[in-house]
Automatic annotation (TrEMBL):
It holds the Pfam family Trypsin. One of its GO terms (molecular function) is serine-type endopeptidase activity. InterPro entries: Peptidase_S1_PA, Peptidase_S1_PA_chymotrypsin, Trypsin_dom. GO terms for biological process: proteolysis. Residues 7-90 form the Peptidase S1 domain. This is Peptidase S1 domain-containing protein.
Length: 105
């Protein structure tokens, strides 16, 4: 069960220099947020790789549908973590090329 959560101000956003959606696709599609104060680590903050078939929460800004409008609100959704084998098979079936080593499904 989720708690009420906490709010933190962001002092700085650091985006990798390699991130350029038009030139590099999703390579480097991540940002580091420097917060105005420290976060107390709890058991709700997991620091290890998720296991297959676990339920994950994806959070971010972006498009909520193909050819849709860019969201101005932070979005979240629940996803199921797939095994590397299932993910690679999906990439092959959909002709997406090899799954980048820094991605998981």
């Amino acid at each position: 069960e989720r708690g009420e959560g906490s709010e933190y101000l962001v002092d700085q956003v650091v985006v990798p220099e390699i991130f350029n959606l038009e030139q590099n696709g999703f390579l480097g599609d991540i940002a580091l947020l420097e917060l105005s104060k420290s976060v107390n680590k709890t058991e709700a903050i997991i620091s290890k790789e998720p296991i297959d078939e676990s339920i994950l929460t994806a959070v971010g800004w972006g498009y909520t549908s193909e050819n849709g409008v860019l969201s101005t609100w932070l979005q979240h959704t629940l996803l199921t973590k797939l095994s590397d084998e299932v993910c690679d098979q999906f990439h092959t079936t959909k002709n997406l090329g090899q799954r980048p080593v820094d991605h998981f499904c």
